[in-house]
């Protein structure tokens, strides 16, 4: 079944019939994780780097922020038997508008926040497609762990 | 026929946005107009009236007693809600199609338009601007030029993409260079022909801020910023992607920090369900 991850949303599954997809990542980031041994995979689609700007919203929508969403993504997969050392990690999104500099560059800040969390927790990114000015859609098949990416106006490709 | 003549001919063949939208905007942003004035304008358009009542009586609003007239609907749901519904319904038919030249599937442009209108409304409220309905509608219809230009963009996609990818052009600048006109200018021509107010024509024409002196105009600035934020959020974005220019001077001009922008994004995140619901009911 096709599981759709909305904006500020997350889905994790071990159902081999599932395909998890998230549409239209602009400056938002999509984190895809997959453990090939237990065949558990998931996608998180977050919008902003830090939940400190609004604790109330973070409590209501933890998947909106990198720092509140990423730990939940991994923990949910662990609860289904996934192990950190086997995890395949793919990151996409974090696009920017032309001339978008400094703190206004939400895409870059989203990516930096993720790098910081991964560094602290010893998580390696296996592959990524981040930055630039394109809009991306990503999908993972739980049975195989195959990951696909599509940019607007182009065909879907397997990475 | 020159390209311009061809474009003008195509504009004339477009099915215009119902006149009720313009009449409503003229009344609604006037502080002296009453609820009755507003109901009167709407009920002159039977198709829109029927459609608004159908939506008001749908499960989405869950009314105990059905609204039988626009006056009922205004009384029960409030002027803002009804005005917004009329404006959305006015734009839906024109903006819901597939725009292949921009890599937009059916419904994508509409989703983008509604999202940026909702974001523009948020920013206008934050800055306590008066003409919120004009701002909402301008944000909703600002990409109307793409409907006609998409065919020409399709024919010239490699040339446009080359300028964008290799020569540091924004997508709008590339349209202008290759086609002689960009989707914002064309949108303004359409708006003028459809007798939109000069304010709206100006906002549509400048929604990518080609002329930086325009940042002084608060309404232009709000629609521009809403468009940038909507691009960043990605929903309904086509092959032009985020290839437009971000002008940080506008933030200083509006007195907004990067945290303010993040707050607007977070608020939009909370409103996404509202946008999805609007897309379904309209």
Describe the protein's architecture and organization:
The complex is a heterodimer of chains A (about 160) and B (about 280). With about 160 residues, chain A is an alpha+beta fold. Chain A contains 3 helices and 10 strands. Chain A has helices at about 55-60, 65-80, 105-120, and strands at about 1-5, 10-15, 20-25, 30-35, 40-45, 90-95, 125-130, 135-140, 145-150, 155-159. Chain A has a 5-stranded mixed β-sheet, with no helix packed on it. In chain A, strands 2-5-4-6-7 form a 5-stranded mixed β-sheet. In chain A, strand 9 (about 145-150) and strand 10 (about 155-160) form a beta hairpin. Chain A is globular. The mean pLDDT of chain A is about 95. With about 280 residues, chain B is an all-alpha fold. Helices cover about 65% and strands about 0% of the residues of chain B. Chain B has helices at about 5-15, 20-30, 35-45, 45-55, 70-75, 80-95, 110-125, 130-140, 145-155, 155-165, 170-180, 185-195, 200-205, 220-235, 250-255, 260-280. In chain B, helix 7 (about 110-125) packs across helix 14. The longest helix of chain B has 24 residues, at about 260-280. The radius of gyration of chain B is 19 Å and the shape is globular. The mean pLDDT of chain B is about 90. The interface between A and B is large, with 36 and 37 residues.
Relative helix content of chain A:
10-25%
The secondary-structure class of chain B comes to mainly alpha
Unreliable segments of 5+ consecutive residues of chain A: none
Secondary structure class of chain A reads: alpha+beta
Helices and strands of chain B, in order, run as HHHHHHHHHHHHHHHH
Cα end-to-end separation of chain A: 21 Å
Task: Describe the secondary-structure layout.
The complex is a heterodimer of chains A (159) and B (282).
Chain A: E1 2-5, E2 9-13, E3 19-25, E4 29-35, E5 40-46, H1 55-60, H2 66-79, E6 88-93, H3 106-120, E7 127-130, E8 136-141, E9 147-151, E10 157-158
Parallel strand pairs in A: 1-3, 6-7
Antiparallel strand pairs in A: 2-5, 3-8, 4-5, 4-6, 8-9, 9-10
Chain B: H1 3-13, H2 19-28, H3 35-43, H4 46-56, H5 70-77, H6 79-95, H7 108-126, H8 132-141, H9 145-155, H10 157-166, H11 171-179, H12 183-193, H13 198-205, H14 218-233, H15 249-254, H16 258-281
Helix pairs in contact in B: 1-12, 2-3, 2-6, 4-6, 5-6, 6-8, 7-8, 7-14, 7-16, 8-13, 8-14, 9-12, 10-11, 12-13
């Amino acid at each position: 079944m096709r599981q759709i991850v909305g904006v500020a949303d997350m889905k994790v599954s071990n159902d081999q019939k599932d395909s998890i997809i998230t549409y239209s990542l602009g400056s938002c980031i999509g984190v895809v994780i997959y453990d090939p041994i237990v065949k558990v995979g998931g996608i998180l689609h977050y919008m902003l780097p830090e939940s400190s700007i609004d604790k109330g919203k973070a409590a209501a929508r933890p998947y909106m922020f990198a720092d509140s969403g990423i730990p939940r993504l991994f923990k949910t997969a662990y609860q289904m038997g996934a192990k950190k050392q086997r995890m395949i990690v793919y990151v996409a999104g974090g696009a920017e508008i032309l001339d978008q500099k400094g703190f206004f560059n939400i895409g870059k800040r989203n990516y930096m926040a993720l790098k910081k969390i991964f560094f602290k927790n010893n998580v390696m990114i296996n592959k990524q497609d981040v930055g630039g000015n394109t809009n991306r859609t990503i999908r993972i098949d739980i049975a195989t762990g195959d990951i696909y990416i599509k940019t607007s106006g182009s065909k879907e490709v397997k990475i | 026929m020159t390209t311009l003549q061809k474009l003008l001919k195509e504009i004339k063949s477009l099915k215009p946005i119902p006149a009720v939208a313009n009449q409503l905007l003229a009344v609604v942003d006037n502080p002296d107009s009453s609820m009755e004035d507003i109901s009167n304008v709407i009920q002159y358009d039977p198709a829109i009236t029927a459609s608004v009542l159908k939506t008001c009586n749908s499960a989405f609003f869950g009314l105990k007693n059905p609204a039988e007239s626009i006056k009922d609907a205004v009384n029960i749901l409030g002027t803002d809600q009804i005005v917004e519904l009329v404006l959305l319904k006015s734009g839906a038919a024109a903006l819901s199609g597939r725009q292949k030249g921009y890599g937009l599937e059916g419904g994508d442009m509409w989703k983008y338009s509604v999202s940026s209108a909702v974001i523009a409304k948020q920013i206008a409220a934050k800055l306590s601007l008066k003409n919120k309905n004009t701002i909402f509608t301008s944000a909703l219809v600002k990409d109307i030029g793409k409907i006609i230009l998409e065919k020409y963009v399709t024919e010239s996609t490699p040339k446009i993409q080359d300028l964008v990818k290799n020569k540091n052009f924004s997508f709008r600048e590339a349209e202008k260079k290759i086609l002689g006109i960009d989707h914002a200018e064309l949108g303004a021509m359409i708006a003028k022909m459809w007798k939109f107010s000069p304010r709206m024509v100006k906002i549509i024409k400048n929604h990518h801020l080609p002329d930086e002196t325009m940042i002084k105009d608060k309404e232009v600035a709000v629609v521009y910023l809403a468009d940038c934020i909507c691009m960043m959020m990605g929903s309904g974005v086509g092959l032009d992607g985020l290839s437009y220019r971000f002008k940080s001077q506008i933030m200083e001009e509006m007195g907004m920090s990067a945290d303010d922008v993040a707050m607007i994004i977070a608020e939009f995140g909370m409103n996404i369900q509202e946008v999805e619901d609007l897309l379904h009911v309209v």
